[in-house]
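ok so i was messing around last nite and threw this chain in just to see what happens. nothing serious, just curious
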Amino acid sequence: AIDVGQRKCWLSSACWMSKSRCLAVASSSFKINLYDSSFTPSPIVPIPHIVHNEGTPLCLGYAHPAHETDGRTKEMLMVGDHNGYVTVYPFDDDWMDPEGERSDNSGALKVIKSKAIRHSYHSNWVT
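result:
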């Protein structure tokens, strides 16, 4: 176990998000922590993360550009979990902007969670 998001847990996957230049790291704490390209999280500001309580995230995939039905393109992070589900998290262009209510007091990114698409592909682990 190593420190991820300021606590010890097991890492299950990591994925470089080229458009936003950040590293997504899935862990056994049911979170996907997001690190900017400096990889030096500030101890004052919580590290942004996605809470993935539906299952332990086991693998990550990334797509950009991913085309929306209205013609826009987005970054998308795909998460496979131990329950056989794949969850797709679409990211708006301004998801890293500090303006507005994008997180709760824990640092979780609320704006991404509300747009997640979850679908069962298997009855067992997606790795």
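not much to say yet. The longest strand covers residues 57-67.
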